[in-house]
Amino acid sequence: MCPVGFDGPRCQQAKHSFRGNGWAWFEPLTKCKSSHTSLELMTTKDSGLVLYQGPIADLSEADAEDFMMLEMKNGYPLLRMNLGSGETKLTIDGRDRHGVVRQGKLSDGRWHRVDVFTSGKVRHLTACLVY
Length: 131
Known about the structure:
This protein is mainly beta. It contains no helices and nine strands. It has one domain: Jelly Rolls. It is 0% helix and 40% strand.
């Protein structure tokens, strides 16, 4: 039996709520050539930072610039990454290739799952953002 706010086979904390400028600190994600990061979120805000992994201090030119950032922009997810070969940006705006809105905003106050799949090396990065 897990205490309130904890869930899963090891009673890990599964949910965090923020009202304003809150944040949570977790162990870093594993760096590897291929990865899958999944999270569920509920928000009514169109813009804001959802997940950031990377340096938290000023870097020198010799330091690695690897980072992954998932944010909300205008109600849709925006993924920014750099794994050593330059920044890659992936965004979804809910429109199909003809410009017709097919998917509503994630800022509707309902639960949404966001999956980030990466596959790549230092010189080439392929990422897929699914929600």
